[in-house]
Amino acid sequence: MNWTKFPDDWWCNEFGDQIHRYEILDDEDRCQVEYHLRQAGERLPWSGKTHTLAEAQRQLEHNRALMI
Length: 68
Known about the structure:
Layout: E1 3-6, E2 10-13, E3 18-25, E4 31-38, E5 48-50, H1 53-67
Antiparallel strand pairs: 1-2, 2-3, 3-4, 4-5
């Protein structure tokens, strides 16, 4: 699976799955990085959330493999 990085910290693969990187402040005002996943064709705005890009890519690739 090939991932293309676009400006503003988001990635898309050839199937239209997307990963968006967000920096969020926790309750103690520490910056936490989250990756929000959106599987192509999903009705919900986000299919999941992870804390690393590699984990986000693996999760979407795993979901795609289950569909085959």
